[in-house]
Write a structure and sequence with these properties.
It is a single chain. By secondary structure, the protein is of the alpha/beta class. The protein has three domains: 3-138, Response regulator (Rossmann fold, 3-Layer(aba) Sandwich); 149-372, Aldolase class I (TIM Barrel), CATH 3.20.20.70; 395-477, no CATH class. The protein has helices at residues 17-28, 45-55, 69-82, 100-103, 117-128, 189-198, 219-229, 249-255, 274-279, 286-299, 317-328, 346-349, 374-391, 397-404, 410-424, 434-446, 454-468; strands spanning 3-7, 34-37, 59-63, 87-91, 110-113, 136-138, 160-163, 166-168, 184-186, 207-210, 237-242, 263-270, 303-310, 333-338, 357-358, 366-368. Strand 5, helix 5 (117-128) and strand 6 form a beta-alpha-beta unit. Helix 2 packs across helix 3 (69-82), helix 7 packs parallel to helix 8 and helix 16 packs antiparallel against helix 17 (454-468). The model has no long low-confidence stretch (mean pLDDT 95).
Length: 477
């Protein structure tokens, strides 16, 4: 019997941890004829379908998330038409809630909700015995999770790999699927360090992204792991999502010892409006979070990524602008995200109370709330795109810092620069070439600076351009 585990990734830079976890569980259960297929959303649909058909599997397991569910269902439908005797199952977060959306699909044989390791072995056993598969199977926690390793081998690795040291989250943020879960199962610090050391078998520079919801929920454990990673044997870059408010003095002292570019920290600020934070069940104050973030950034050796979410309860356009300004200088990279009304979350259940209208198709992005109109959210999308473009790979780092330290509001700068581009260029942002964007940036920046600062501003932009381009910079005049 052959089993194919399928994950449609966002790009070739990404890999799927979920199918690797399932592969490990199946192999531990004695199933050796198991294959992983990992195409991307950018690949031609016909080519992806051809790979699935060529696999000739008896059981296909599809990993389903909000970013791939539409394409995954289309492939599953066509695969069933071409291979009617094959069994097709869906699993993953997107199919684990409101399962009626999927159980009635005639081309799907089984839906697995929750954790999949035990469930996939159960289904393989049923199929091997010739027994029918259930339409719906509720996954149970994997008892072997705490002992399983890192799941990556050097011949199937990418520059970005994923690792899970804990499952679950002690917090219940209203926009997150973890709100529906209770408890945390975490590997010991020793086990985690042993697993992370195995990534040293992968040659070259890679980033190991820990997918733990809140890595430092257990502060003592987190400190042991960070202390261990100071060992020179650990040479990769490590990305952690943390709660800044949980950091104590010893955490700061340990983190300050790392060499530059070894540690990346991601902090979900979401909003600095206390009423909004209370509504989404985030009980740490924005003030303490930003105070810790500023201290981390000031250390100078850490890469700090902060997140905001537009569309949360009680957050209007003006208060979101304040959240943006409060947060901007606390981060190396600020990401402006948009609320997704995920099935199974408290905000999904309370959407009417908050006047939330979301797209009916994945990723279920909020289109309007009681406090933000569709037009305002659309404008924020434009600002988010401009923010990403100017922050990308630090290509505008010097010029951006120069101008933003001389204007009253970072948000106001991005808002007004977006208006300038619409007026003086008119094309969509992605159609403006990098060289042209530099010229626009200089022209707009001059309107914000006194005349005697124009030449100095141009010097910073020239340095930015030369750091990323081999061509001569445009003439800033």
């Amino acid at each position: 019997m052959k089993i194919t585990l399928f994950a449609l990734n966002a790009s070739h830079a990404h890999t799927s941890l979920s199918v690797r976890c399932l592969l490990a569980a199946l192999r531990d259960a004695g199933y050796t004829n198991v294959e992983i297929l990992e195409p991307t959303l950018r690949d031609r649909t016909e080519s992806v379908l051809a790979e699935l058909v060529k696999s000739h599997a008896d059981l296909y397991g599809f990993s389903c998330y909000i970013w791939n569910i539409r394409e995954t269902l289309a492939l599953a439908r066509d695969l069933k038409a071409l291979c009617p005797n094959a069994k097709i199952l869906l699993g993953g977060p997107e199919v684990s809630f409101d399962t009626h959306r999927f159980t009635d699909l005639p081309f799907i044989d089984c839906i697995v909700t929750g954790e999949g390791e035990v469930a996939i072995v159960t289904l393989a056993d049923l199929l091997a015995a010739g027994d029918p598969l259930p339409r719906l199977l509720t996954g149970t926690p994997d008892p072997a999770f705490l002992a399983r390793g890192a799941h990556y081998t050097k011949d199937r690795a990418s520059t970005l790999v994923y690792y899970e040291s804990a499952r679950g989250c002690p917090y219940h943020c209203a926009f997150c699927l973890s709100a529906a879960q209770t408890g945390v199962r975490a590997k010991s610090a020793a086990q985690t360090l042993a697993d992370l050391l195995s990534f040293e078998e992968i040659p070259g520079p890679i980033t190991v992204k820990l997918v733990d919801r809140t890595f430092n929920f257990d502060v003592a454990r987190a400190k042991k792991i960070w202390q261990g990673l100071l060992d020179a044997r650990y040479t990769k870059c490590y990305h952690f999502e943390i709660s800044a408010g949980l950091l104590d003095e010893e955490c700061f002292a340990i983190l300050k010892q790392f060499p530059a570019r070894k540690i990346r920290l991601e902090i979900g600020v979401q909003s600095t409006k206390e009423q909004t934070l209370a509504a989404i069940c985030r009980h740490q104050s924005a003030t303490s979070t930003l105070r810790a973030a500023k201290r981390l950034k000031a250390a100078g050796n850490l890469h700090l990524h902060l997140d905001l979410i537009a569309g949360l309860p009680f957050e209007d356009y003006a208060s979101f602008a304040r959240s943006f300004d409060d947060t901007y200088f606390c981060a190396d990279v600020l990401q402006l995200g948009f609320l997704k009304l995920l099935h199974g979350t408290p905000l999904y259940e309370n959407a009417k109370e908050y006047g939330m209208i979301a797209s009916g198709t994945p990723p279920y992005t909020v289109l309007q709330t009681k406090w933000l109109s569709f037009e305002e959210l659309h404008r924020l999308h434009g600002i988010a795109d401009l923010l990403d473009r100017l922050q990308e790979k630090g290509r505008f780092a010097h010029g951006l810092h120069y101008i933003l330290t001389r204007v009253p509001s970072p948000f106001g700068f991005f808002e007004n620069f977006l208006d300038y581009l619409c007026l003086h260029d008119g094309r969509a942002l992605q159609k403006i070439a990098q060289r042209e964007l530099f010229s626009h940036f200089y022209a707009f920046g001059k309107t914000l600076l006194p005349t005697d600062r124009h030449a100095e501003f141009a010097t910073y932009l020239e340095a930015d351009f030369r750091s990323a381009e081999v061509r001569r910079p445009p003439k800033f005049q």
